[in-house]
Each structure stands twice: as structure tokens, then as C-alpha cells.
Design brief:
The complex is a heterodimer of chains A (326) and B (263). With 326 residues, chain A is α/β, with parallel strands linked by helices. An 8-stranded mixed β-sheet of chain A has the order 4-5-9-10-11-13-14-15, covered by helices on one side. In chain A, strands 2-1-3-8-6 form a 5-stranded mixed β-sheet. Chain A has a two-stranded antiparallel sheet with strand order 7-12. In chain A, strand 1, helix 1 and strand 2 form a beta-alpha-beta unit. In chain A, helix 11 packs parallel to helix 14 and helix 12 runs antiparallel to helix 13. In chain B, strand 2 and strand 3 form a beta hairpin. The longest helix of chain B has 17 residues. The two termini of chain B are 37 Å apart. In chain B, 41% of the residues are buried. The chains are: A alpha/beta (326), B alpha/beta (263). The structure holds iron/sulfur cluster. The site of iron/sulfur cluster has 9 residues of chain A, from strand 7.
Chain lengths: 326, 263
Amino acid sequence: MNIDNVYIEKRVENHSNTQKILERIKFQNIIICNSYSEVFNPSNQNFRIQKKYPSLILAKKENSFIKETPPDFTIGYKKNYYFSHMLNCPFDCKYCYLQGMFNSANYLIFVNYEDFYNPIQTLIKKNKEKLCFFSGYDCDSLALENITGFLENLVNNFHIFDGGFLELRSKSTNVKLLSAIKPINNLIPAFSLNPQFIIKEFESGTPNLVKRLSVIKSLQEKGWNIGVRFDPIIWLGDQSRYEFFFKEVFKDLDIRKIHSITLGSFRMPTKYLKKLSKIRPSDSFIQSAYVQQSFRRSSKELNNEVKSFCKKQILKFVEKEKLFEN
Amino acid sequence: MIHFLVATLSEGRPIIDFFDLKISNNDSLFKVYHSAGISLTISGIGKINSAMSVIKTFFDFNKQKNNIWINLGLAGHKNHRIGDLFLVNKIKDSSSNKMYYPFVAHSKLKSIQCITYEKENLDYNESLSEMEASGFFYSANKFSSLELVQVLKIISDNEKESINFNDKHKIYDLIFSNKKKIINLCDSLHKIKENIEDYNLQYINKEFEEIFKGIKFSFTEKQQMKSLLKLYFARYNFLKKDLFNYKENGSFNIQMLKNFLRI
Ligand code: SF4
């Protein structure tokens, strides 16, 4: 990957992960900064432009390593947490909430991976119940693995998750590392899916459905239990196309090797949606969602209809214990 | 529109010639030149002048947000060759120690950091030495997205040699010899500006004022109507004026448009 500019916080200049990341990319300039926030946070910058010309920011995360997920967000475990070793993503989904959350589209990597491990272990030790951790909440877990090496580092230290579960959620088909190792029971690779006509229109830069399905299949054949994520399922009407999609997804997959399925509709805090409506003014999907939300017209009814239709389709193939609605 | 800001007329001359600019005022404070789509303001030396001239230019040219701003000027460096041109990727204000990070990822031009000094600095180092960038950047970034605010510097002096700053022809030649790079930068900035689709919003604001001249809207209704118009223009190219009833109030017309858009 060609990233011309790399911003590095002075304090992580000599961190071993910084050095490794620099060895993995071709770049033109290193720009030293005091804090990533000087580059990442200023308000008058444009997410859309930066998406086209992203830079890399290497920084140190200081605190709040692990956060609780919203209450409904689960794949079957009572207590759920998430962490982000990285903010932003090389893909460009129209509906991505990161556009509403961040001012910058630059890839921000927290290189002090080791500092995430203690809080995870402490949480697991403190709790009697099984905990589930989600990676890839504010990024895509696998898409930039070739640069970050985060997963590799995690796999080498995976004992920290003993007694807990980790989900790696992605749209990427970059699964070289997972294919090369023996499946780990409490590590759940999970893939987000939508019909191909939605992928084409809404998920720019992501692998197509056939590729994603073939990667899931090959990991299942190697023994991995896979999470299948229809979240958010983007609904453009025409039930028959979605019916066909669910058939297409489940016809080739090994149902026994599906860890869980989640189903969720498109949702976003109004504050983020407002920002999206500003930076994507000619996108009718975003404008329509914003107008609905700002007129406080509840789209719950439609969402429930959509969800119950999708649920019906999914349950044709998979037992209901595996399905979770987010 | 592109706004160039330079400290002295000698630095501005080549820009006047590249773009065939005409003087638009003979203001004793800041001279301004322009043609269709380009302006040039002579700010005078120093970061305060530079910040003030940005504001003056912004107001002179209809307070247009998200125009392109370029601070072009001469700078010193420890060892870079006289005549070399750089985009600035980091600006340090020497008196406040505040940092700014202009966006340079769109350009293949060489980029470098610079320090904005209060006074002329002859203690050359690895950063460019100059006197305007921090004031310019701080000010222009208030009116335009960071990606559209650029600082472009040409080396005029280093540890071993310096041009004669009174030699207007020499300054002209230094800048003129970088003409192609300057014009390419303008082209690439025009291209990235296309990603800021605010023409749509500006158009909607204009349409709103025009169509609903005689109709009273509360603040909230105004916002609601504008967001409906945004959705309308995301779906259609032209506004059907007979969609509205100009004898009725804002809320009635909002409902009409909602019905049309099936919201
Ligand atoms: S893959 Fe996920 S993180 Fe990346 S752009 Fe799409 S929604 Fe956002």
C-alpha cells in the first residue's frame, strides 16, 4: 500500500511496532507530531477528501482501552466489550458511522498493542461470566493487517483471552494469518454480508459477496467457527432479491461451523447522520435517512418489518439459538 | 476561486503575470489583484499582516467558504538549493509553539516543515524559516477546509548563499521558474475541491431565499425545509416551483414537500 505521509507521535518514534509498520509500507514523508489529536481532531477538515488521500498516523493510546458495547450488542454472551487498535478503514461504505464520528479519514493506529492486554485480562479475571470482546468496532479488523500486524501480535499473546471470547469483524478477505494457524476456539472471525447489489452501491472498495463467501467457506473447512453478520442489512425493498441473497449465502456454508448470526438495520445517532448529510449532500439514501430522523419519524416500523422478513429467511437455514438481533 | 497571498509585490508579480490579474483596489492597507477565479493579495511582512489580509480577502470576495487559499513566498533553509520549491506539511509558530499540519497528501511536490518567526531568522535549520505561514494558515482554515489551505515556499537563502532581496528581477525569476509546479498545484486543488460538494448546499440556500421570499418560517421550519430540499436535490435536478403554495405559511409548504417526497 502506498501511503505518502506518515505522522508519528514523538513518543512512539522508536516503538518496535512503529518500526515494523514503517518497514511494511512505502512512504515519502515522516512528519513528527506531539499528539495525534493535532492532526486527527481539528474540526475544519474534510473526511471525503482524506478518504481519497489517506495518511497514516502512529500514536500511543493512553487510556480507555476497553469500552462496554451498547446493551443490545451481543452474540450470545452477557457482558460485551470492544476495543480499537485502529480508527478508520480503507473501505468506503456510504453508511459508515465513522464518517459521522471522526473529523479525519486518516488511518490512526495505536502502536502500543501490549497496553490493551492488561485491561482485557483484568476484566476476564474479575468476572465470573464469560466475556466477549469485539475488535473492529471503529475500524475493520483485518483490512489493514498487512500494515498493522495487530492480529499477529494478538495471536501470539492469545492466552490473555482464556476464559473470554474475541470477535474479529471484517469485510476484508485478508485472512492469510487465520488460514495459516490452527483454529482457536474462542477466536471468532466474523464477516459482514449484504446482497451484491448493495455491496456494489454502498460498500465501495470492499471484496464482493462471492469472495467473502469463499473465504468464509475456506476458513470453515480449516475448522474455524465463523460469525455471519447481516448488520447493517441495507434494505432497498424488493423482497425477492433478499430472499435470493440469503439462499446464496447459506447454500454453500457449513451451518454447523457458524458460530452466530447477527441481524441489524441501519441506525446512527442523529449527530453523526447530520454530519454525513453535510459531507454527502447528493446521496439520497443518507439524505432520506437524515430527513426521517430529523422529523422524528420513527423508522422502527419499517425496520421491524425488514428484520422480521430477514429473520424468517435466515431461520429457514439456521436454528434460532444462533441468531441475535442487534 | 483561488486566493493567493504573498508578503511583497515582488513575490506577487509573477502570479499577476501567470494569471493576467488586474488590480481591483488601491487600498492603502492591502493591494488586491484579481481575474475570474483568481485573486492575489499583498499582505505585507509578518504573520499578523498575513492573517489580516486573509480576512480582508474573504470579505472582499463575497465571504465564500471553501475557496482555495495559497500562501506563496520565499523562505530560508540550512542547505536546500536556492529556487527549490516546497509545500509545507507542518508549521510551527515560534512564539506560541503552536503547530499546524497542512494537508499535503494530494500532491507529489516535495514537502517540508517550516517555522514562522516574528523576526527574520538567519540561524538556519532543518525547517524552512519564514514569517507568514502560521498567521495565514490559522486564519484561512477558518474559512476553508484544511485540505484547501496550502503554503508554498521557494528557497531564497541558505547557510552558504542568499539572493539580494532588493533585486526584484531575481525574485521574479525564482518564482517564474516554478510556474509549472504552481499551476499544477492549482489544478490538483481544484480537483480535490470537487469532493466538497457544498455547491449543493450553497445552491439550496440561494434557492430557499429566492423561492420563499414572502413566506414566514420559524428557525426550526427553515432547517426542516432545507433538509427536505437537500433530499429533493439528491433525487431530482430541477425544483418544480408549482410544488409549493406561496399563499400559505412555512409549515404548510413543508408538509407539501414531505408529501411529494413521501416522508
Ligand atoms: S468496512 Fe466497516 S469500518 Fe470500513 S468503511 Fe465499511 S462500515 Fe466503515
